[in-house]
Design goal:
Layout (H helix, E strand, L loop, with lengths): L2 E2 L17 E2 L19 H15 L7 H9 L25 E5 L7 E11 L4 E6 L16 E5 L8 H4 L5 E7 L10 E2 L4 E5 L7 H16 L7 E5 L3 H11 L8 E2 L7 E8 L20 H33 L5 H13 L3 E5 L10 H11 L2 E5 L7 H9 L3 E5 L15 E6 L4 H15 L2 E6 L16 H4 L1 H5 L3 H9 L8 H24 L1
Parallel strand pairs: 5-7, 8-12, 9-10, 9-12, 10-11, 13-14, 13-15, 15-16, 16-17
Antiparallel strand pairs: 1-2, 3-4, 4-5, 4-12, 6-7
Helix pairs in contact: 6-9, 8-14
InterPro entries: Glyco_transf_61_cat, Glycosyltransferase_61
Pfam family, one: Glyco_transf_61
Protein name: Glycosyltransferase 61 catalytic domain-containing protein
């Protein structure tokens, strides 16, 4: 059963975290509908209160980096006093040998850094750090054998108990160096390791990028590929699917933490992944001001060689097809020649099956063709090779799709391209928060096409004055199951082509102007 998932919403005056998706696993969602994102109205008061506490109780209690990191985690990094904090200085950016430092200030994920003699023990789900420091030198004593003991689940949906309960937990333990006598290294690495999980919602393209690949890039890119990835809840299919990307983030094969029983030794380890926001990279939090465009450049390097080989194969097949069309009608041949010589802008429609499908998609294709687009319909499946989807979208000028996990593929578009998201009833906030805003950050020209009640299949099922049609937000506020069962699982779209045509014409004009400028240059 396909399920749809989002973040727990915090009430008015707090930051609203959300995560929209169609789930391919049988996980329960306990959320309660969509709310509009807003910055905390009482943020200024919060800052004043924080500063007052600092003055009264001392800077060592409240004016610590962790206090400000907590403020950042609630989405206020660009406002007021917090804007003056050096956001690039992580709490654990500089630690001494023989130390574990854990940053638990973010609502999205915990991250621990271990530096020194780091050794794995998969049988006990533990990572040990051996140190020459005496017990007196370590702050946190937990037993006579352990100098420090931390626990962490290295997955980026920390706030969501239902999924975090399924993630394997790691014990991070500091011991004195005399204990390593019975813990020999089977494999000694001279580069750091990053530990993370591919469990949870892995299997859904939105979560694979939002919860996994983008945070992995954020956490590891500064190592310049000199890093080993150690994966909990390891999946061979995930490695095969994303191997092209992983090879551009690390020079070394990934390690299956549970499956590889050998002791791996590292000079340093980061356990957990840092995450910024939905499908994006915040340059204010990155060394060298790296952004989501830099992540997309990694995708370019990962997929373009395969795309080029696919194009050569398509050209060969096209030539064979042309030879077979010697007896075809002259009009068909003329149209193919016209498409090639005029270089009509390419428009890709990401087609859906089942819920939230465009029922008059064939008429949409016809209209787009008449406007002047060269139309390609792509139907992503779980088994579809990502390089094929990347090739289609990377070479397109415009993409159209209905709100859902497949919209994650906007990351495959070139900055400056047009992304038109069709927004069904009841999905307005999620559509913009999870795809619209991230697309703008990538440099796409984003167009959100909010359908009217008459364009929804729900129009034939409910009375015209029913809140389902008239006030979807009030329905969503009743609870998550209402949103899911009504708007996500049982709604299709029949576009008002006259209304939608206006967006397509504007997209066409913009694209032609851009192509002319490029040709002139």
């Amino acid at each position: 059963m396909v399920q749809y998932f989002r973040y727990h919403q915090l009430k008015k005056g707090e930051h609203h975290h959300a995560g929209e998706d169609e789930m391919l696993s049988l996980m329960s969602a306990t959320s309660s509908g969509y709310f509009k994102r807003s910055r905390p109205k009482l943020f200024s008061l919060l800052i004043l209160s924080l500063l007052s506490c600092c003055l009264i109780l001392g800077s060592h209690l409240f004016c610590s980096p962790s206090a400000f990191s907590l403020l950042y985690s609630f989405g206020v990094e660009g406002d007021g006093v917090a804007a003056n904090v050096n956001a690039k200085a992580s709490l654990c950016s500089s630690i001494s040998n023989g130390t574990i430092c854990c940053d638990r200030s973010s609502i999205r994920s915990d991250v621990c850094v271990m530096k020194g003699d780091v050794r794995t023990n998969s049988a006990s789900s533990s990572i040990f750090l051996y140190t020459s420091k005496s017990t007196d030198a370590v702050i946190q004593n937990v037993s006579k054998d352990e100098l420090q003991h931390e626990r962490i689940k290295p997955y980026t949906r920390k706030w969501e108990t239902s999924v975090m309960d399924t993630i394997d937990e790691l014990d991070l333990i500091v011991k004195t160096e005399n204990f390593r006598i019975n813990h020999h290294c089977d494999v000694k690495h001279d580069v750091p390791a990053v530990f993370f999980s591919t469990g949870g919602y892995t299997g859904n393209v939105y979560h694979e990028f939002n919860d996994g690949l983008l945070p992995l890039y954020i956490t590891s890119q500064h190592f310049k590929k000199k890093v080993v990835f150690v994966i909990l809840e390891y999946h061979d299919w995930w490695i095969m699917k994303y191997g092209d990307i992983l090879s551009h983030l690390s020079d070394y094969p990934a390690i299956d933490f549970s499956g590889d029983k050998r002791t791996h030794c590292f000079p340093e380890a980061i356990v957990g992944l840092r995450i910024h926001d939905e499908l994006t990279v915040d340059p204010l939090l990155m060394q060298g001001n790296k952004s989501v465009v830099d992540f997309r450049n990694v995708l370019d390097r990962a997929y373009l060689p395969r795309v080029q080989s696919l194009l050569k194969e398509e050209e060969r097949l096209a030539q064979e097809k042309l030879k077979q069309k010697v007896h075809s009608s002259s009009s068909e041949i003329r149209k193919e020649v016209q498409d090639a010589t005029l270089k009509r802008p390419k428009l890709v429609i990401l087609s859906r099956n089942g819920s939230r499908a465009i029922t008059n998609e064939d008429l949409l294709v016809k209209m787009a063709d008449e406007i002047g687009f060269r139309v390609e319909v792509v139907r992503p499946e779980r088994t579809t090779e990502l390089a094929r989807i990347y090739g289609a979208l990377n070479s397109s000028e415009v993409m159209i799709g209905v709100h859902g996990a497949a919209m994650t593929h906007f990351l495959f578009m070139r900055p400056g391209s047009v992304f038109i998201q069709v927004i069904p009833l009841g999905t307005e906030w999620a559509a913009d928060a999870y795809y619209g805003e991230p697309a703008r950050k990538l440099g796409l020209k984003y167009v959100g096409y909010q359908i009217l009640p008459r364009e929804s299949s729900l129009y034939d099922k409910y009375d015209r004055n029913d809140p389902v049609l008239r006030d979807p937000e009030s329905v969503s506020e009743k609870g998550w199951q209402y949103t899911k069962s009504i708007y996500l699982d049982n709604q299709n779209v029949r576009l008002n082509l006259g209304r939608f045509q206006k967006r397509l014409l504007r997209a066409y004009s913009y694209t032609i102007a851009k192509m002319n400028r490029r040709s002139h240059l």
